[in-house]
Specification:
The structure is a homodimer. Chain A has about 700 residues and is an alpha/beta fold. Chain A has 25 helices and 19 strands. The N terminus of chain A is likely disordered.
Chain lengths: ~700, ~700
């Protein structure tokens, strides 16, 4: 019997050589059948492409070969894949029926068949075939001396058509190489939408040939040239990724108004008439680029005809740089304070029968729709744009939830039920420093909500969002990856794929493999630790980082003023990540010990405690030549002292005063030091 | 007495708080006086700029603040430095008399005064001030809790005006971010010439708007756009670095001839007259992009008028992209085989009374001088262009030496004596994988050669050259840095600064600090080791890499065919570097032990031997799940077995057969495995 068992989603095969549970695939395919046997790689391995694919498949196949060769060191003979049917007898045969079109609703499915004699990929479009190549790379196995693929049959397709990542390049500029390597990583986990947040209070990041004031006055010299933007759009398209630009209006507009204060809403103090040209200067308020984080007052004036002239000119210049169908205009967090205080705007509202700021913003947003339509773009905005008169053509980006006092995903459901296409980001805010589990279990289609099939179809998918107030090019990858791979799986795979221990296991391999694409989440950690340690040994710091996590949900920069856009982000909090490795392992150890106090289980717990006592000593020693370690010492002292007492208690060497121990553990819950928290606190209290 | 002692070049101050020997400055300043006392940093530290500097100084000062803040975590209050005399009371005062002009012969000197109350930089040009900022960063000291600068008075200026680094972007393309971070690193060690090798047999790397065939047919899609080139030239200029482009002709021309075969010298077999248009096709030979390394036959035809038309068009398009005064036309390693075999060319030589290929090449090169002069560029070429009729306006790039059967630097002296300006690269071939000591002690002006002051003045300086046959963007930094800092010191500092132990000590700190600029030499080592280990622990591999060095002087790719341009460079040899850390330390230990067999000295040696025995066991264990470790095992077995016998001999636990031991050590001299050699062999044989 050749087919031993058909396995859907998970599980394993008795008697088969390789179990599906041993495969570190992510996103998990829709259907996978394991067979007994393998296909072994050697240097003669070649790729052949047939059908009517887009030319991007040749570059994708060439990259595939280079990555495979980099992993295996086989010195593969095939150099470049440049044309169709070049090697009809190649071991890897790709058949594509048609050229795929990057964007929504394209057929991204593929079938992958690995037999002992070779590999076959069948896909409707080359986009499906490119996904299949990533699956092949994830299937690579090895023993001591060779590399091989398991015999397997996979049928795969995405659950949602919008599987996005947003990167904020406004708060901290992210150069072209950061964007490109993240596009590579997105493609590796089959994501297909890159949302590029290009304009916010802290900077305008697009070269404007007709309006050079934007970059001259509002970018600090950090912006993308139009050629770079076109290059990135092409780079993304080569990987089947659509790029959605965002220019955030009418709020979040400090950068725009720094360049063009004449379209601002702020009322100018008439005492400012000290300049010669009174009439002109007295009507324009000054703005300057924002250096802090938060929600700010500067807002575009919707009553000023010049506003629409300028925005139309902006769209005329920016739209042609992008080939995708959508343009994100922001629309979020508009306070309206300057509207309320501006008599001219109040008069405009009265004249146009606009009852409140919501209606005024709707009026404003509606003016943008034809400007975008002129360039075949559909308008997308954050959920605040969804007011009663908003066009149903707009795409609603759902982002608010419990942090904003609302139900999770509420706007998504309202949008879908109201006839809007919609995308979920609430629950996918990867800058909040929450556990990957929180994001992973956040499904765009909640089980308890009844939706018609039309309403479901309007839920396009979801998008991880990476706001950049607290990240630089040095650290951004470590906040995005590997966690975004879990969100990619949520958006691609079946809703039933929710096993957290499988996720964590697979994520370790995915994380490792992301280095191949230049993702810096692992290697830049060492860079920062070397800086903190002042070029001394980094082991103790690294071990300590495995139980510390950065403060969550914006508490690191709670007033938005501790960290300005130029503040150092080379600190201990910048190497710590959510899901601190040893904290996760310690939790498991504590739970096992509390269930069964065997010597082995006890040792597993006490080994951690001893390690933390030792770390504290080592950090004290290192700190004599490393001022950046000083802020961490109170924290390592706390955990060391609590560990000492817990050791005495657990090993029963000495009577321990519970009140004192309780106090010591409580101190491990401090959030006062070094912008991090001890992620083991919740496990420590269980040991009391 | 405020000034304790005047110290030139090196030495230390008795009784002073900080000794000059404790400073990790590189290049070492011309004159340094230490005083007693310090200036301590706090968050109020600010920079103020006065005088008539170029605007580049503002960006340089802003970068300086960000680097200082990244190291110290002080949250410096000053964000951006954007205008003159913004903070008249700032602790760091910069005075520049004039705007510097990037290029040769500019005044790059500076004076730096650090007192307990603040820092003063005086410089003729902003280029000198920018050098001073790098010195300030190198002077940063710390104790347990604070950062400070020693009180010091420095007068500094370069010995040579040409302090260059060449990067070959033809053999392996090096993207913009690689170039930019290397420009930052060059500036950190006060280098001022970036020589960009843009065209060779393996690729044409310049976007050509009028001749798109170059990149379409001869780049594999890897090239710099003209906008990127201009951006890099500007980026370099911001750092006081002049960019010299190189298009290598008439040899090394496979890429050029792949795009324009009609200017090739190859005679076509007349049997190829199978095409319709006989006359045209039969005179054009086909060329295809070279995938191997070496010296190849394809050569431009100097007898063809179309050659000069095309080259003139090329220079018309490429020259305006660069602001520097020089253009490198290569001219090296022209075999002339196709010239010898081509009757048309032979007839041309006869007609023009060109006696041999040298004279023909001179004829060819002389045609290029006016093409470049049209764009205010002077011609530079590798030393082969220096023939008897070559214009004295040409700059001679001296590169050949013992490897080519010539005396080291011979052509440099001949050039200087013959009236040519000249630059030394022989001895600075950092791709040869030789010890940094070899490069460091290689002075452009050899002591034993008598030169007049005019002749000396023609020796402009030197240039480290990084050929890229065996490096990718992943590994190139680890071949360039930190070793190029030693060459930078040779070219900047006094000729008397030659102490190797001081160099090695300072280089460790410089190496660490290069990470701040994004140089990847340290962090990418971990990336490759994780790949080799297949995501297992990397310690044993890393320790083993500390006694292994890549095969030297092109023996790694001796026939030029093992490694093609697409071969994997993710192997063990790619993490090993010259001056293997533990090999250097072991040599010291062995020498001490042989001088004095004290128990301490013995232990120092035997600790190494024990470590290597342990490494072998660990590598064997790891290899069961990591095929890429297999090729290393014979080598770790050799050193382990030799170490075991040596241990027995040294610790006198057992009689050792000297013949067997000798054999085992001899096996440690093998160069057969994994493209590396054991760098401890020469120390091991001393222990026999």
């Amino acid at each position: 019997m050749k087919y031993i068992l058909i396995l859907l989603f998970s599980g394993f095969v008795a008697n088969a050589q390789i179990k599906t549970t041993s495969l570190d695939l992510m996103p998990w395919p829709q259907k996978i059948e394991m067979k007994s046997g393998t296909f072994t790689l050697d240097k003669n391995f070649k790729v052949n492409i047939k059908g009517q694919p887009d030319a991007r498949i040749f570059q994708a196949a060439t990259h595939f070969l280079r990555r495979l060769d980099g992993r295996t060191g086989l010195f593969l003979e095939q150099g470049f894949v440049t044309k169709e049917n070049e090697f009809p007898t190649a071991s890897l045969q790709i058949n594509c029926a048609k050229a795929g079109k990057t964007g929504l609703y394209e057929d991204e499915s593929y079938q992958l068949e690995i037999q002992s004699t070779g590999i076959t990929i069948n896909a409707t479009s080359d986009l499906g075939a490119i996904h299949a190549l990533e699956t092949v790379l994830q299937l690579l196995q090895n023993n001591a001396s060779s590399f091989y693929f398991p015999m397997v049959s996979i049928t795969d397709f995405p659950r949602f058509t919008w599987r996005g990542l947003m990167i904020d390049a406004a708060r901290h500029f992210q150069p072209v190489d950061v964007i490109k390597r993240n596009l590579d990583a997105m493609a590796a986990v089959k994501m297909n939408v890159f949302h590029w947040h290009l304009v916010d209070d802290q900077g305008w990041r697009i070269e404007m040939k007709k309006h050079p004031r934007f970059t001259e006055l509002a970018s600090d010299g950090d912006y993308y040239t139009q050629e770079e933007i076109k290059d990135i759009v092409k780079y993304a398209d080569q990987r089947g990724i659509m790029v959605i630009p965002e220019i955030d209006v009418p709020g979040h507009a400090t950068a725009i108004l720094t360049a063009y204060p004449e379209i601002g809403s702020k009322v100018v103090n008439s005492n400012a008439n000290f300049l010669e040209n009174k009439t002109q200067t007295s009507t324009i308020a000054p703005y300057s680029l924002e250096r802090n984080s938060g929600i700010f007052t500067p807002t575009i004036d919707p009553s000023n005809p010049r506003t629409y002239e300028l925005l139309s000119e902006i769209f005329d210049e920016v739209c042609p740089l992008f080939s995708g169908k959508y343009f994100h205009i922001g629309g979020d967090e508009n306070e309206g304070k300057d509207w309320d205080a501006n008599p001219k705007i109040q008069a405009f509202m009265k004249k146009n029968k606009l009852a409140n700021n919501h209606e005024l913003q709707t009026y404003f947003t509606m003016q943008l729709i034809p400007m975008l339509k002129k360039h075949q773009k559909e308008l997308m905005g954050w959920e605040e744009i969804m007011t009663k008169n908003m066009s149903k053509e707009a795409v609603i980006h759902s982002w608010r939830g419990p942090n904003e006092g609302l139900l999770s995903g509420q706007s998504l459901v309202i949008a879908a039920k109201s006839g809007y296409k919609t995308v979920l980001s609430n629950g996918y805010y990867i800058d909040l420093m929450q556990s990957v589990a929180d994001h992973y279990l956040n499904d765009p289609i909640a089980k308890n909500i009844a939706l018609t099939s039309e309403e479901r179809a309007r839920i396009l998918g979801g998008e991880a969002v990476m706001w950049s107030e607290l990240v630089t090019p040095l650290t951004i990858d470590s906040r995005i990856w590997p966690r975004t791979a879990a969100i990619a799986e949520r958006l691609w795979s079946d809703a039933a794929i929710t096993d957290l221990s499988s996720l964590r296991k697979r994520l370790k391999t995915i994380s490792f493999r992301l280095e191949e694409l230049g993702i810096t989440h692992l290697k830049n950690k060492d860079v920062i630790l070397r800086n903190i340690s002042n070029n001394q040994k980094t082991e103790a710091l690294e071990d300590f980082s495995k139980i510390c996590e950065p403060l969550k949900i914006y508490t690191r920069n709670s007033e938005g003023t501790e960290y300005k856009v130029y503040s150092p982000l080379t600190l201990f909090a910048d190497v710590c990540t959510p899901d601190a490795e040893d904290a996760v392992a310690f939790e498991v150890a504590v739970n096992q010990y509390l269930e069964n106090k065997s010597p082995e289980n006890q040792n597993r717990v006490t080994d951690f405690l001893k390690k933390w006592i030792e770390i504290n000593s080592k950090l004290i020693a290192l700190s004599s030549n490393a001022p950046l370690i000083q802020p961490i010492l109170p924290l390592s002292k706390n955990i060391s002292e609590a560990s000492q007492q817990l050791l005495l208690k657990i090993e029963k060497k000495q009577a321990v005063n519970t009140a004192i121990l309780s106090d010591l553990i409580e101190q491990c819950n401090s959030k006062k030091y070094a912008d991090v928290e001890l992620a083991v606190y919740s496990s420590l209290i269980k040991l009391l």
